[in-house]
């Protein structure tokens, strides 16, 4: 039993007070009186906190009222089976959730210049070099100059990479922290698929990290979307598309990303 | 430094020459076969053109046969007609198209020998030639939502109408690429548009369960909405021009509410309600022999008599919903008296006579008026029917690997093209339903396809945002037309072959021309 659930435990063992329901009814009936008394009489910080709480409650209340009202309205127009207009031959088909449906709204937005460079995570927390790199000092020479570094963050390493000879390898990217795949979410469709990473396009921390293929939160990676069946305007199949990493991979043990459409 | 390949030895050279000679001979006709007797028959009437003529086998290719037949027919040099030749065996159980010459089609496979008289049936081909569209002449914005249907005027390629999800239909001037009229009145998506065969009226069917009729010239509504359906309109079919009573044309509308209604446009009333289908009616066609063909989600095709609204026939073979129908005479019925010369008869009686003649020319095979029907279905197959002779299908067209969405007959009725969700367009023989070829190239589902007026080209519209023009004869891609920014829902090739109009999810009408 969790430490603080003593009331529930008591109620399970002995049942509720006989007049419990009646007391609850009375309390809810007097709730408005209590609220009005508090609103008028509380002073200082407590008043401030109370008003804040009350403000939030009122917003929720208004939302619920509005929802109810909308539910009650009977529209004269016939129900359209989908939001976007569809030709007759597609109307009675269950639309396959395939990643093609880039909505026109998104496309219009992309046409605007400013939106072109907008990404889901515009800002990330900086990571210091001390945190990113661990100085390696094994061996006499290496210890003397301390020039060797181990990257302590997850990385993407291309499939054709071979490690340099020990003497020349300045940055070590540990095998256990290498990732080949990312769980990519399509923001419009709300589907998530595991896709192979092709390359790291930009690490917002440092251009050097881009070069090293470090995967941190906010990094832009290129993923292989060929199995989603996306098509360009000229009818060619798209296979590389950019995605931004949304989690902190070293905390989660996986790479989650959102597709930039 | 690159290694130099040594020159071929004498033995290699001799072998190469030998091979080249063999390959060449594969396609040449031996010159020592003498001549063969050929008897020409008209495909439409079955009549022979004079006595059999003797033709040297070495020269018996289609070009020369065409010249010979033109001379036999007594055609002048300036009105020579291109012909297509088919061989039919005496019992009539075998039909072979003569593609290049007699030797390779008939003599080499051993169908006939040089001793026999070969009976060749000829059909005139279109005397005009449509050039493949290759560029986007105009991209016209105007619609506020996706474009769901397009149709060119039967008169010429200068006007086109499109129906859209913004609950309007718009008439476009395709010469200048400008909007002509906006047809406002519907309260929901316009799902179907159809020009009347004489080009004077436009009918639109909508999601708001009503049909509206508009004046094509002025762009104004002719009366109010035709109400009666309980669900949205899926398709519209005008009564063929030669069957219309002067002054009161009729139109058939199919609906999701599983009925078809025949409207009399003079009195704006429902003439008949064709009930009997058990599912949404997807397609309606009005045949030239005064029959209405309907296809439905209940797996059947029904044929109705529009005079009294009775059911004539039910064609049931499909195993899943039927998506689309095409009549072999669709093109003749759609264009009525508008032919490629652009001459319009002066009086109404002449117009009807001209329309009737065009229809009968198109539909007559062996002195009989035969209207063939092809149906596309969700069971991945198509059936070819000849409802006048039997309620069993002529052929089952197998090959698609997903639902077949759209099917169309070529204007000269020799080909059937089908567009499916398996990214392929397939071409079939219009006579016996034999598979001819597959047009591969689309990377998304193909929604619609349309033949050019001379049946030599085909344009297909796809989910992959492109249109593609295919050469029917070679089975190859003629031109790729990228440009749309999203799925292309509707495409139409103008009846005079000049332009292609398309519209889709990106809300812009695009006009393509050569």
UniProtKB/TrEMBL annotation, chain A:
* Keyword Ribonucleoprotein annotated: yes
**Which family would the database say this protein is a member of?**
Belongs to the eukaryotic ribosomal protein eS8 family. Ribosome biogenesis protein NSA2 subfamily.
Protein keywords:
Nucleus, Ribonucleoprotein, Ribosome biogenesis, rRNA processing
Basic residues bias: start-end ranges = 51-65
Question: What does the UniProt function comment say about this protein?
Answer: Involved in the biogenesis of the 60S ribosomal subunit. May play a part in the quality control of pre-60S particles.
- From the UniProt annotation, give the residues forming the signal peptide: none
The protein depicted here goes by the name Ribosome biogenesis protein NSA2 homolog
Q: Which segments carry the region annotation Disordered?
A: 1-87
- Give a yes or no for keyword S-adenosyl-L-methionine in this entry: no
Give the Basic and acidic residues compositional bias ranges. Answer: 1-36
Localization terms from the record: Nucleus, Nucleolus
GO cellular component, alphabetical, reads: nucleolus; preribosome
Question: Where is it predominantly found?
Answer: nucleus
Q: What interactions and quaternary structure are annotated?
A: Component of the pre-66S ribosomal particle.
GO biological process annotation, one example: rRNA processing
Database matches in InterPro entries: NSA2_fam, Ribosomal_Se8/biogenesis_NSA2
From TrEMBL, chain B:
Q: Which PANTHER family match?
A: NOTCHLESS PROTEIN HOMOLOG 1, WD40 REPEAT PROTEIN
Similarity annotation: Belongs to the NLE1/RSA4 family.
The name this protein carries in UniProt is Ribosome assembly protein 4
Q: What are the annotated GO cellular component locations?
A: nucleolus
Q: Where in the cell is it found?
A: Nucleus, Nucleolus
Q: Which UniProt keywords apply?
A: Nucleus, Repeat, WD repeat
A GO BP term, please?
Answer: ribosomal large subunit assembly
Recorded hits in Gene3D superfamilies, A to Z, give:
YVTN repeat-like/Quinoprotein amine dehydrogenase
Q: Which domain of life is it from?
A: Eukaryota
């Amino acid at each position: 039993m969790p430490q603080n659930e003593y009331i529930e435990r008591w109620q399970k063992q002995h049942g509720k007070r006989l007049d419990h329901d009646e007391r609850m009814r009375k309390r809810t009936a007097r709730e408005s009186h209590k609220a009005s008394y508090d609103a008028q009489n509380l002073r200082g910080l407590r008043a401030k906190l109370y008003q804040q709480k009350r403000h939030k409650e009122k917003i929720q209340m208004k939302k619920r009222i509005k929802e109810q009202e909308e539910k009650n309205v009977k529209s004269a127009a016939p129900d359209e089976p989908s939001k976007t207009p569809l030709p007759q031959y597609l109307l009675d088909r269950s639309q396959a959730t395939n990643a093609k449906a880039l909505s026109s709204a998104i496309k219009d937005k992309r046409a605007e210049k400013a939106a072109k460079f907008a990404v889901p995570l515009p800002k990330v927390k900086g990571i210091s070099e001390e945190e990113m790199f661990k100085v390696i000092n094994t061996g006499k020479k290496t210890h003397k100059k301390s020039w060797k570094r181990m990257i302590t963050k997850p990385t993407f390493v291309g499939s054709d990479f071979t490690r340099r000879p020990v003497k020349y390898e300045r940055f070590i990217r540990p095998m256990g922290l290498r990732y080949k795949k990312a769980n990519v979410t399509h923001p419009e469709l709300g589907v998530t698929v595991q896709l192979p990473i092709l390359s790291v396009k930009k690490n917002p921390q440092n251009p050097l990290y881009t070069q090293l293929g470090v995967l941190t939160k906010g990094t832009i990676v290129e993923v292989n979307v060929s199995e989603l069946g996306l098509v360009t305007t000229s009818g060619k199949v798209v296979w590389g598309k950019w995605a931004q990493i949304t989690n902190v991979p070293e905390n989660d043990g996986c790479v989650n990303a959102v597709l930039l459409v | 430094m690159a290694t130099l390949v040594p020159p071929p030895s004498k033995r290699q050279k001799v072998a190469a020459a030998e091979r080249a000679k063999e390959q060449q001979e594969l396609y040449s006709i031996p010159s020592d076969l003498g001549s063969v007797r050929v008897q020409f028959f008209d495909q439409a009437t079955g009549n022979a053109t004079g006595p059999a003529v003797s033709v040297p086998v070495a020269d018996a290719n289609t070009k020369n046969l065409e010249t010979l037949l033109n001379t036999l027919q007594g055609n002048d040099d300036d009105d020579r007609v291109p012909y297509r030749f088919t061989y039919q065996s005496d019992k009539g159980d075998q039909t072979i198209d003569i593609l290049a010459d007699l030797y390779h089609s008939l003599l080499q496979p051993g169908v006939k020998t040089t001793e026999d008289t070969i009976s060749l049936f000829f059909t005139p081909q279109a005397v005009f030639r449509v050039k493949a569209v290759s560029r986007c002449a105009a991209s016209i914005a105007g619609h506020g939502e996706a474009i769901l249907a397009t149709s060119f005027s039967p008169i010429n390629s200068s006007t086109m109408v499109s129906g859209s999800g913004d609950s309007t239909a718009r008439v476009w001037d395709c010469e200048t690429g400008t909007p002509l009229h906006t047809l406002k009145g519907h309260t929901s998506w316009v799902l179907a548009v159809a020009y009347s065969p004489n080009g004077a009226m436009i009918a639109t069917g909508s999601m708001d369960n009503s049909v509206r009729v508009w004046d094509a010239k002025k762009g104004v509504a002719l009366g109010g909405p035709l109400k009666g359906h309980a669900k949205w309109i899926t398709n519209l079919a005008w009564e063929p021009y030669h069957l219309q009573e002067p002054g009161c044309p009729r139109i058939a509308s199919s609906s999701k509410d599983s009925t078809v209604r025949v409207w009399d446009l003079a009195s704006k009333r429902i003439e008949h309600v064709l009930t009997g289908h058990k599912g949404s009616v997807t397609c309606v066609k009005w045949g030239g022999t005064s029959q209405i063909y309907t296809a439905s989600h209940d797996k059947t095709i029904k044929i109705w008599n529009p005079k009294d609204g009775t059911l004539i026939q039910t064609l049931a073979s499909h195993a899943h919903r039927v998506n689309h129908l095409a009549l072999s005479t669709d093109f003749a019925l759609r264009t009525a008296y508008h032919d490629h010369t652009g001459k319009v008869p002066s009086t109404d009686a002449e117009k009807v006579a001209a329309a009737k003649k065009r229809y009968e020319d198109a539909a007559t095979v062996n002195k009989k008026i035969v209207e063939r029907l092809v149906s596309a279905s969700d069971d991945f197959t198509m059936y070819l029917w000849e409802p006048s002779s039997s309620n069993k299908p002529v052929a089952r067209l197998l090959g698609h690997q997903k639902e077949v969405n759209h099917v169309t007959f070529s204007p000269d009725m020799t080909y059937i093209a089908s567009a499916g969700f398996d990214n392929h367009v397939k071409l079939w023989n219009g006579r016996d339903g034999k598979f001819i070829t597959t047009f591969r190239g689309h990377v998304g589902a193909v929604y619609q396809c349309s033949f050019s007026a001379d049946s030599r080209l085909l344009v297909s519209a796809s989910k992959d945002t492109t249109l593609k023009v295919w050469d029917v004869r070679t089975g190859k891609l003629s031109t790729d037309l990228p440009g749309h920014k999203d799925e292309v829902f509707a495409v139409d090739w103008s009846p005079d072959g000049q332009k292609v109009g398309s519209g889709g999810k990106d809300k812009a009408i695009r006009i393509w021309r050569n």
